[in-house]
Protein: Aldo/keto reductase family protein
Organism: Kribbella sancticallisti
Amino acid sequence: MDFRYLGNSGLKVSEISYGNWITHGSQVENEQAKACVKAALDAGITTFDTADVYANTKAEVVLGEALEGVRRESVEVFTKVYWPTGPGGPNDAGLSRKHIHESINGSLKRLKTDYVDLYQAHRFDTETPLEETMEAFADVVRSGKALYIGVSEWTAEQLQEGHRLARELRIPFVSNQPQYNMLWRVIEGEVVPASEELGIGQVVFSPIAQGVLTGKYKPGEQPPAGSRATDENGGANFIGRFLTDDVLTRVQELKPIADEVGLSLAQLAIAWVLQNPNVSSAITGASRPEQVAENVKASGVKLEDAQLKRIDETLGGIVERDPAKTAQNSPQTRPGS
C-alpha cells in the first residue's frame, strides 16, 4: 500500500481507503462487514470512511465494532455530518451548531473512539450561515473530537469561502470528498484547480462508478442478479445514469487496456483516479473480503500517458465534465425542511 498526504497537511492516508456507504448495516451482514474490514487492515489500508447517515447510524456502529481492538493511532477514521439522522426532526439535519455538536458526540459513541481524524460536512448547507458552521467545526477541533476538517461535494466557490473562514479560525480544512471516476469528471474544471491552490486534497468516492467500471454490466443484458443495479434499497438509484448501452459498450472496450497493464477493469478504474495528483485517496467498498484484496492491487500503479490517452479516446463523449453538476447534485434546501 502506498500512502499520500491529505491535502497539504502532515497526515498520511492510505491511497486506497475503505468506505461503508451502502454496505455496512444494510446490504451486508455484520460479520461479513467485519471480515471486509479485517481484509482491509490485512491489505495495508489504514483509512476508513463512514458517515452518520449511512444506514441511519448503523454503519458507524458496525465500523466501530470492526475496529475494536485495533491500535487507534494506526488507523485514520473519517466520518461526516449533514444528512438527516434519527427520527428526522427539524434539527436532525444540516450544519447548524446544534446538529454538528450533537452529531459528533453520537458518531464518537458509535465508533467507540474519543476522536475522528477527519470530520466532514457531507454537503453544503444553504440554510445555515457558513460562519456558524465553521465556528462549530472549530469548536469540535479545539475540543479534541476531530483533528482535521473536510467537506463533500462543495463547489469551488464554497471551498474558497470555507477555507478563508477556516484560516481565520486557525483550523485545518484539508479535504473534499467528491464523486470522481473515468465517467464522472466534473471536478476537473473548477474544483481541482481551486483545491490545488488552497491545499485541499480529494478523497474520492465511487472510483468504479458503483460497479459499472468493473465490466460486469453488459450492453443489451439485464443486470446480474444481486448486483447493486437490482438493489432498490441501496444502489439502483445511484447507478442508473450509467446503465446505457453506449456507456456499457465503451466500458467493455477498455478491457484491452486493462489487460495490457495486467489489471482487471476495476483495478484500472481505481488506478486511473490515483493518477490525479490532487487525489489523496480513493474510497472503495466491498461486500466480500476478496474484493478488498483485489482493489488494493491498484495501489502504486503508474499508467503511461499513452494509456491515459487511449482511455479518453475509448470513452469519448460519454464522459460527464460539466462543473455545474457539483452544485446540481447538492440539495438546494436542507433535507427535511
User: Anything to note?
Assistant: The first strand starts at residue 3 and ends at 5. DSSP finds 13 helices and ten strands in the chain. Strands lie at 3-5, 12-14, 16-19, 47-49, 76-81, 116-121, 146-151, 173-176, 201-204, 279-284.
